[in-house]
Automatic annotation (TrEMBL):
Protein name: ABC transporter ATP-binding protein
Keyword Transmembrane helix: yes
Source species taxonomy: Bacteria, Bacillati, Actinomycetota, Actinomycetes, Kitasatosporales
Residue intervals of the ABC transporter domain: 337-559
Pfam family name, one: ABC_tran
Species this chain originates from: Streptomyces paromomycinus (Streptomyces rimosus subsp. paromomycinus)
Main location: membrane
Membrane topology label: Multi-pass membrane protein
SUPFAM superfamilies documented for this protein: ABC transporter transmembrane region, P-loop containing nucleoside triphosphate hydrolases
Keywords, ordered alphabetically: ATP-binding, Membrane, Nucleotide-binding, Transmembrane, Transmembrane helix
Amino acid sequence: MSEAQRHRVVPGAPLRRSGLRFLKRRRTVLARLAGWSLVESGQTFLFGFALAHALDDGFLRGSPVVGAAWLAAAAVCVGAGAYGTARVYGAVADLVEPLRDTLVRKVVTRGLYAPDGAAVSRLTHQVEIARDTFAGLVLVSRSFVFVTAGALVGLCSLAPVLLLLVVPPLVLGLALFAGALRPMARRQETFLAADEAIATETGTAVGGLRDITAAGAERTVAAAAGERFDAELRASRALARWSVSRVLALGISGRLPIVLLLLAAPWLLGRGVTPGALVGALAYLTQSLLPALQSLMHGLGTAGTRLGVVLRRLTAEPATGAAGAGSHRTPRDGYAVELTGVTFAYGPHADPVLRGLDLTVPAGGHLAVVGPSGIGKSTLAALVAGMLEPGSGEVRRPATADRVLVPQEAYVFSGTVRENLAYLCPGGRVPDADLLAAAAEIGAGALLARLGGPDATLAPAELSAGERQLLALVRAYLARAPLIVLDEATCHLDPEAEARAERAFAARPGGTLIVVAHRISSALRADRVLVMDGTHVRTGRHGELLRRSALYRELTGGWAHAEPPAAAPLQPALAARDADGVDAVAGTRLAGDGGHVVAHGPGRQMQDAGDLGDRGALGGQ
Ligand SMILES: Nc1ncnc2c1ncn2[C@@H]1O[C@H](COP(=O)(O)OP(=O)(O)OP(=O)(O)O)[C@@H](O)[C@H]1O
């Protein structure tokens, strides 16, 4: 599936709007860029002007010293222009780097909600393409504007009549180019999509060569690949046809004025235009205007289209119906998450991490997931949050906007505290009062004050891992998503801070909380605990599990009573197995459900419990 198919392509208008917003917010940088460009373009103006005066006032009048002085003045201006160019690059960097940050943020966010194999590639490759292309476009279009202005002012100062020969073809050629830009962009986009389709098709074929040969499918695969190549050929021909218009536009706007100037030279000389002015005008046209037009038309025609395509893809929403967000059924009324017969393995030949797992979490529930290291807790969290899709079975989860996963590694980016915290809020905005209240609830009030409040700028590298986690927790809290999944998201906090944050999430009215526990105290706070041990899953209340699950007793440090040390970190991998009432079959099974969560193995009828409390295992055991 190509990128274009995998993601809903955003029409051009929203992209343009966000582009304009991006530029509006950077008015100061743009002003600086314009200022240095003006310095740089001074040399354009002086180049033809000084040449004309060097001839008319100097060399043609037999005063070589005057002529040389004019040329020297032009040379000084070249030095000033070079200084301006150097500063221009600095300003361009200030414009381009924030774009890169914005795109990385978008891609990372989308990667969290709808990851696919190309997410990393988009991040590293396409963001770099976007940044470089954007920088190139800024340089080229800015240079065109200032060089053209410099040349036209120069022509006017030499003899206003010269503009009659230059401006009409220039405008006509630019209009032709502007008209062809959109159809050309569409052809370019089709070409890129066809190119990608070839890469995908051949990549798949190469990866499955053995299977193709074994199945005798060589002809079929070759025919499919052939179709892709034909499609690319058609796309490249269409693109080539439209590229002719670019050559035509360049000819009219850049080369026709030179021809007109030469043809009209006798007439111009007869109307008082000096030979020096003619030479100066020729210099403007050949040395400034034509190269600037060439760069502009090449830059906008190719790089501009490329930038448009890359930006649309980077900012596109995942397509409904594709793998990832959007293609799922939401849970039935009263439930936050429902897993039915879920099997998941990392790769086609790997052993499943989860096999036939059934699990329901009611809306408003608070579930803690415990188990030895590497048993599949994070995998379960990722399946619940929609970061992974099951190999078989079904996960019913809330829509993308209604669920938030907070991973162990907290993501904090350069920007203000407010930008970081409001990041998951609609429009990236939240009233300060809400922001401060959320921070206080989570226990990040002191941190916020120490950082300097919502407007302070964050330097992520200077924050400790715990501070980053606190910020990520506040961000998740502010998102007001009904389902929050904390995957060891508090592991760098001390037990008290962890307890405060978890309680804040659990106390949200109607909010569902799933916590992959780092310390056993997280299990004590939950309504229900899910114990994973690879072959079995047990759920129940803490006290009940202490009685019924040897593994749980091991994990809680061997405490047989209902109150183990609250802050004890969970023990690492254990070989313990539940001894009571467990199937020998490798598969998850219901054991000791207490009501809010149901987990059982394949072949069992799904049972959704009311609160059975200590009445023990559900029927069917
Ligand atoms: N991206 C991956 N590719 C391949 N295998 C993976 C991947 N992520 C996890 N695994 C494997 O899947 C199994 C379950 O991993 P998971 O991270 O879900 O366990 P966990 O219980 O959360 O462990 P921990 O408590 O150490 O975080 C482990 O054997 C792990 O090595």
